[in-house]
Write a structure and sequence with these properties.
With 321 residues, the chain is α+β, with helices and mostly antiparallel strands. The protein is elongated and about 75 Å long.
């Protein structure tokens, strides 16, 4: 019951922020606002300030911004219906922009705890990787696109590697400022030796960039864009009937012991490849279990370790149920 109440309140806050976006742009662009309300239903409290009534209503599920001329024609020159099309457009999209901005701020706050970010730049290729060459991949290459999808973060690689059906992908990389195409590139998982263990990997180890303000803001922006894209992908998958694959089995190594399962919060918080922290899509926390930073619990073979993992504790993602 508590979770239902929290969900309702959060939903209400998101709608109220959405309506605030309409309200503030309407005011700035000279549109008359008759009432701005937080909540719906019976009126609990209201105050009049200038032309606008500010209201608090009983049902905490959203709110509204009642503009003059929004639904009916009005002779008021400041009515919404009498404003130029460009002003109407700005007022209408401001609500969605406010939700986007809210997501950016929340992600920035969550990512502020990270000590580094894993980026889609190849640090090293595993020994035995078959396509390490000028015509294939080289350390320092930035992966820009996978199967036509723009790659912003390391978790984007995990996502679109995992969504690929056969491991043969169309890549676009950037090398020394020049973009190069690698159509039909074979990145099927192969067996490699990693830290003394034989594991199924794609053979790419990505760069870790240290935390600094510019990188933090950039990663926050990228992850916000990714959230929007995830909505699009989810809708496409929903209507196309794309099957949901089973998650990978996570096997942990700690002090010589080995056990499968989820990340254990009592023993693996802020360890392994970096501090457990939120990343876009599958790189965030699942419930109370932190995800290993730079290694994301995702599809079999879709995840690679970050370079220079911390000694003593490590995690690999192996196929399995």
């Amino acid at each position: 019951m508590l979770y239902i109440i929290i969900a309702i309140l959060m939903f209400g806050i998101l709608i109220a922020l959405h309506e605030f976006g309409h309200f503030i742009t309407a005011k700035l662009l000279g549109v008359r606002v008759n009432e701005f309300a937080i909540g719906m239903g019976p009126l609990l409290f209201s105050t009049q300030k200038g032309e606008t009534q500010y209201s608090l209503r009983a049902i905490p599920m959203g709110g509204f911004c009642a503009m003059e001329g929004e639904d009916d024609a009005s002779d008021d020159p400041r009515a919404f219906s009498n404003k130029p099309a460009w002003r109407k457009f700005i007022v209408l999209v401001a609500g969605s922009f406010m939700n986007f901005l809210t997501g950016f701020v929340l992600l920035a706050l969550l990512l502020a705890q990270n000590t580094f970010f894993v980026v889609p730049v190849i640090d090293t290729l595993m020994e035995g990787f078959p396509y390490e060459s000028a015509q294939g991949l080289l350390p320092g290459d930035r992966i820009v696109r996978v199967n036509g999808e723009r790659i912003y973060t390391k978790s984007d690689l995990d996502l679109f590697f995992g969504r690929d059906e056969d491991g043969i992908m169309d890549l676009v990389i950037e090398r020394d400022g020049v973009r190069l195409e690698r159509p039909g590139f074979d990145l099927r998982p192969r067996e490699y030796t990693y830290e003394g263990e034989t594991v199924q990997m794609r053979g790419l180890i990505c760069v870790r960039e240290p935390f600094h303000v510019g990188n933090w803001l950039r990663q926050s922006w990228y992850n916000t864009i990714d959230m929007v894209r995830m909505v699009r992908l989810s809708l496409v998958d929903l209507f196309s009937g794309r099957a949901v694959r089973p998650p990978a089995r996570v096997v942990f190594f700690s002090g010589g012991s080995r056990y499968p399962g989820h990340v254990r919060p009592d023993r693996h918080r802020n360890h392994d490849v970096g501090r457990g922290g939120p990343v876009s899509q599958y790189g965030g926390r699942t419930g109370e279990y932190p995800v290993v930073r730079g290694l994301h619990r995702h599809q079999p073979g879709g995840d690679e370790p970050a370079a220079h993992s911390s000694p003593g504790r490590r995690a690999h993602f192996l196929p399995g149920g």
